[in-house]
Amino acid sequence: MKFSRALGRFALAIVLTYLGLLAVTFFIGRVIPVDPVLAVVGDHAPEAVMARVREEMGLNKPVLEQFGIYVAKVLRGDFGTSVLTSNPVLDDIQRTFPATFELATLGILIGAGFGVPLGVWAAVRRGGLADQLVRVMGLIGYSVPIFWLGLMALVLFYAKLDWVAGPGRVDVTYEYMFTPSTGILLLDTAMQGQWEAFRNVFSHLILPASLLGYFSLAYISRMTRSFMLNELSQEYVVAARAKGLSEARIIWRHALRNAMVPLVTVITLSYAGLLEGSVLTETVFAWPGLGLYITNSLQNADMNAVLGGTLVVGSVFIGLNLLSDLLYRTLDPRTRQR
Amino acid sequence: MNSSFPVLTRRQLGSVAGASALALSLGSVSALAATPVDTLVVAFAFDDMITLDPGETFELSTSEMIGNTYSQLVRYEVTDPTKLYGDLAKSWKVSDDGRTYSFELKPGLKFASGNPLSAEDVVWSLQRAVIMDKSPAFILGQFGFTKDNVKDKIKQTGPLSLTIDTDKAYAPTFVLNCLTATVGSILDKKLVLSKEVNGDLGAAWMKTNYAGSGPMKVREWRPNEVLVLERNDFYYADKAKPARVIYRHIKESATQRLMLEKGDVDIARNLTPQDLAAVTANKGILTTASPKGTVYYISLNQKNPILAKPEVREALKWLMDYSAIGDTILKGIGVIHQNFLPVGMLGASTVNPYKLDVEKAKALLKKAGYPNGFKITIDMRTVQPVQGITEAFQQTAKRAGIDIEIIPGDGKQVLTKYRARTHDMYIGQWGTDYWDPNSNTDFVRNADNSDNAKVKSLAWRNAWDAPALYMQADAAVLERDPARRKAMYEKMQAEFRATSPFIMIYQMTEVAAYRSNVSGFRIGSTSDTNYVYRAAKR
């Protein structure tokens, strides 16, 4: 009974969040001083064509009615057609989201995979060289524009050293060697046994993913360091030391386990941020992902696409928050008892 | 894209690509970057492409795609845009009263689908564009065609012959030039109608599909990602040189440059002057350039009483440092041009009388009653080189006491305000709709200056009422003698330079950089004459 009530409240919260998200995006889209008709007809179209398209798009109706119509359509699973691509918005999202998903997932694996141990290392060696090093890495991660760093990485690793492939997701040569069924090209090439293409896809992916990974690493390592410092000053650590437990065991089994609880939120939120699509990275690396899609749609007042994209981003946040809650409960038994 | 006509299947293309990959993998690591020799790879920002339908599109990138994949009745020479030649048309003649155009088609024509191409397709395609009445339909509508009468005006007279009846005796160059526009592209009636839904004339399907007869055909379009063209083996004239052309959407100039230098792309199309200068130092890279039909200008809204004064209008024209802007900001991407007709078009003038003259401007301002200048705003899209020009203008105008506040915005935002004519000054561009001087008379046409006018031309947007020039424009489009017509446009431009509220600044030059193993690629005056199908690779 208690569980079903909690589930009901949770479902209601999700519905309200979505509705709020839709409403805010929709009304912002309507108050900005941009005529969405221009996106459809261009600047040179005669006034009569503009007027007809305005009517076709339902923009003559009262705003509230437009919102109602939109919500009703969304409930039927119809997100409308994108003005900019002439495709159903859902199709566009199915095309762009896997590109961002692949990039973000590798990015967060790199970010957390390196960020957590580095943060632990910095906390253990507090004030030492390791600590300074991690701090400088973090500082660069925060202060250097990702756009510039991306270009520099391309110049060095792609143009000069020839270690990785350039912008885009796959070389022209491999483009049609496999069918992009899931849109996650590493998976598609692997499933179809196209290993040459797999290597090429990976070669394209590794640089932008490392760059995104580096930026999340900067944040994750800093947070890990501070959570670990907090844990290492706790009495149970002193007690563990007094009992004669090895330092490694204290750090990795006891302190890190406790620090992991808040850290899970940090990592999942970083991941959510990456899944939104990193516009600048996607621009430099010509990566046809969700971030570019939404930004381009916004600039062109393509409201169906903006609303559809926003819903996806919202879903990512809601989903990852839920995941982070679940992990929280697994990692910290106290939260389960409450 | 689901095409019903024969194209290479993924498997077939895969084997071609596979073979190329194998050949390449035997070479060095860096050779892996090279593109296959039968494939031209173009780095190009094509995020303006919103539909593939020639009856609907008005965008520059789509125009280039159409130019390479569709045919029209007539076309103009890339080397001399004032000369027309028959594309699908074998011959044409104009009746004595100047109102009936009869066309005879070449025999044995076919679409890329393999379907035969006859006068029925031509008549249907032109009628379709008028009936659908999308953005570019007005180009054909100028001859008096409406949804209701077009079936009587454009008629098939035989398997390979048709006639087009216009409402007035227009200048033949005007009518024929309009037919070269992308909206005049000929569609495969049988194929398109097989995809029709609820009597939409195939409009929904055509947004993302192809039904033409040009030297290349569209294999795939993934918006903002890739556009793939393939050779059309049914093309009636010289076959396309590359087996396929792959356009990759790469927005960043620096990224385009890196990929060009590395050999991952063969042509880079959107390089900034800086990147362009850098690649020209590379011996393996060549460049090509051509003046385009796009002019940039600052306009002065005549609703503002200060800007409505003729002396103020003139003063502002003397407050732009044209030569400095030309030598720095526009270097390689544009040339100073103070006329509303772009160079290359019939009757275009190359007279550029204005230069920076602060003293002259001050005297004019004094005469207008503003000896100490005034404050004014300008709406500007935050893109280069527009931003650089606006800031330079702001500096020079300050020397005459004019304090310009720049209001930045993105494209659609600035345009929305401009179209509502609520700006003071506006800096923008105008690309010609079809290669005829009448297209740019939008700068002078304003039949109704009221806020609710049906035609919202550029002159209307700036509340400029110039009936004398408007009448000259109307007369010029009816002048059937090309020499007299040319003289009429020259006279209009002289008057326009002196009195209009438009400070014409420059004409755009489109530039492309390409690897030295590419030959035959050149840029035309309009996007639809940027022929990639003529480019060969060694």
From TrEMBL, chain A:
InterPro entries: BPD_transp_1_N, MetI-like, MetI-like_sf
Keywords carried by this UniProt record: Cell membrane, Membrane, Transmembrane, Transmembrane helix, Transport
Subcellular location: Cell membrane
Domain of life the protein comes from: Bacteria
Membrane topology: Multi-pass membrane protein
An example molecular function term from Gene Ontology annotations: dipeptide transmembrane transporter activity
Gene3D superfamilies membership: MetI-like
GO CC annotations on file: plasma membrane
Annotated ranges, domain ABC transmembrane type-1: 97-328
Chain ranges passing through the membrane: 7-28, 103-124, 136-159, 201-220, 259-285, 305-328
Family that this chain belongs to: Belongs to the binding-protein-dependent transport system permease family.
Protein name in UniProt: Peptide ABC transporter permease
Protein's organism: Rhodoferax fermentans
Organism placement in taxonomy: Bacteria, Pseudomonadati, Pseudomonadota, Betaproteobacteria, Burkholderiales
UniProtKB/TrEMBL annotation, chain B:
Protein's UniProt name: ABC transporter substrate-binding protein
GO annotation, cellular component aspect: ATP-binding cassette (ABC) transporter complex; outer membrane-bounded periplasmic space
Superkingdom of the source species: Bacteria
GO biological process, one term: peptide transport
Chain segments annotated as coiled-coil in the UniProt record: none
Alphabetical UniProt keywords: Signal
The UniProt record lists the keyword Lyase: no
The keyword Signal is assigned to this record: yes
Position of the signal peptide: 1-33
Pfam families per UniProt: SBP_bac_5
InterPro entries: Peptide/Ni-bd, SBP_5, SBP_5_dom, TAT_signal
Ranges where the Solute-binding protein family domain occurs: 83-449
Entry GO MF terms: peptide transmembrane transporter activity
Source organism of this protein record: Rhodoferax fermentans
Residue ranges crossing the lipid bilayer per the database entry: none
